[in-house]
Amino acid sequence: MGKLLTKPSTYELNDHNGNVTVNAAGVVLNKSAINGDVYLTPGIGEGKVTIQKSSIIGDVFVAGGGESITLTDTTVDGEMFIARKHGKVKLVLDGTTALSGVQATGNVHIVNQKTTPVQEVKVNKPDQAGSTIRIQGLVINLLSNQEISLT
What we know:
Layout: E1 3-5, E2 10-11, E3 16-17, E4 20-22, E5 27-30, E6 33-35, E7 38-40, E8 48-52, E9 55-56, E10 60-62, E11 68-72, E12 75-94, E13 98-112, E14 118-123, E15 133-136, E16 139-144
Parallel strand pairs: 1-4, 2-5, 3-6, 4-7, 5-8, 6-9, 7-10, 8-11, 9-12, 10-12, 11-12, 12-13, 13-14, 13-15, 14-16
């Protein structure tokens, strides 16, 4: 499991080797260098998590958080996998955030506020009927494993 964050607070994880699991809303990862995967779990509920001025060498797995998962001035050297079973996830990318790709399943709203595009967004078949994936901002490649409707 690695480092487990269970209380709302601002954390600075310098040169952290291993995975990080966030299991509470109100967590801010600030100026963190993580060599491992980051797990945003259902314990976040409908709350917010912010990752700012950080570097993640690994993937980010999102299974919780509704109001907003925000990445600001953050580099993710891996992919982001969003698959929340119940409810929506809003992912906001801001500042100089660099992210190679996002894989989205379920009710997901991706807001790219940066002037640089996300390299790739993959839309996976949803687990729940009526799921929608909204994308705002620049994306270079939009891929899907199913027929999708663009509006």
